[in-house]
Amino acid sequence: MSPFYDYFAGVFEQKYRNAALKQLNIASGEIVLEIGFGTGHCLKQIAEAVGEEGRVYGIDISSGMLVASRRRLEKAGLWSRVDLTCDDAVKMPYTDNQFDAVFSSFTLELFDSPEIPQLLAEIRRVLRPEGRVGVVSMSKEYGASPLMRSYEWFHQKLPQYIDCRPIYVEQAIKDAGFSIQHKERVSLVGLPGDIVIGAKPASSV
Ligand SMILES: C[S@@+](CC[C@H](N)C(=O)[O-])C[C@H]1O[C@@H](n2cnc3c(N)ncnc32)[C@H](O)[C@@H]1O
Predict the structure, then answer these.
(1) 47 and 78 Cβ atoms separated by less than 8 Å
(2) Range of the domain at 71
(3) Rounded to an integer, what distance in angstroms lies between the CA atom of residue 32 and that of residue 203?
(4) Is residue 204 part of a domain?
């Protein structure tokens, strides 16, 4: 989907990605990971925010998305600040405590339910103590409207086309041992979503 992803998803999701990035409050010199970077809109913003002293890492399972992101970053003159990997984020190739912040937009809700705690445990492992995680995702927390029920029905029947579904975002992040710093409800074309920022405890194993 990488060649045409921006035409159908990029535009309406942009507002929420930007709001989540603002809350993550990335500073110059930080080392930041993005999971499921897609066509690289947020990678570009993160690379600008970390500046020349910082570094951005990204992991995405799609080689097409990696090509699209590389093109965007090269065009912006930011490629030298970025290190991209094509792999499944459940098996991250990064070392413990490597990052100041981890960001992920519209990706956590694609993972299979048993994989969500595994992914969040990996995020906690690679974050330094007091490091932040920022997620924007469809949310199941606000009840089942008729629109939500239809969406979930399509996800169950046609997962090859409707591959994501609403999840309990804040609870999953809490269960992974993060303290919640910020939570904001958003509306994704009538479907509820959440922006959640969590922090890894100062002393944790
Ligand atoms: C819905 S897109 C969101 C892209 C981008 N974050 C955005 O907001 O526009 C989800 C992205 O997650 C990637 N992805 C899906 N499963 C993944 C996995 N297991 N590991 C890493 N990336 C994955 C997809 O290739 C895709 O680029």
Answers:
(1) yes
(2) 5-199
(3) 20
(4) no
Measured CA to CA, the distance from residue 106 to residue 74 in angstroms comes to: 24
Confidence of residue 124 (pLDDT cuts 50, 70, 90): very high
Q: What is the CATH number of the domain that holds 102?
A: 3.40.50.150
Torsion of CA 101, 104, 110, 114, to 10 degrees: 10
pLDDT in tens, 143-163: 778 887 887 887 778 777 777
Q: How many domains does the chain have?
A: 1
Ligand 1 atom 17: residue of nearest CA: 61
CA of 38 to the centre of ligand 1 (A): 5
**Ligand 1 site, residue 46, Cβ cutoff 6 A:** no
203: confidence class by pLDDT, cuts 50, 70, 90? confident
Q: Which of 123, 140, 105 is nearest to 18 (CA)?
A: 105
CA of 39 to the centre of ligand 1 (A): 9
The answer, yes or no, to whether any atom of ligand 1 lies below 6 A from the CB of 20, is no
What is the chain's alpha carbon radius of gyration, rounded to the nearest angstrom? 16
Ligand 1 centre and the CA of 37: distance in Å? 6
- Indicate the residue type of 51: G
Question: Best of 12, 110, 122, 164 to mutate for ligand 1, by most ligand atoms within 8 A of CB?
Answer: 110
In whole angstroms, how far apart are CA 113 and each of 104, 166, 200? 17, 11, 22
62 Cβ inside 6 Å of ligand 1: yes
Is the overall model pTM greater than 0.85, yes or no? yes
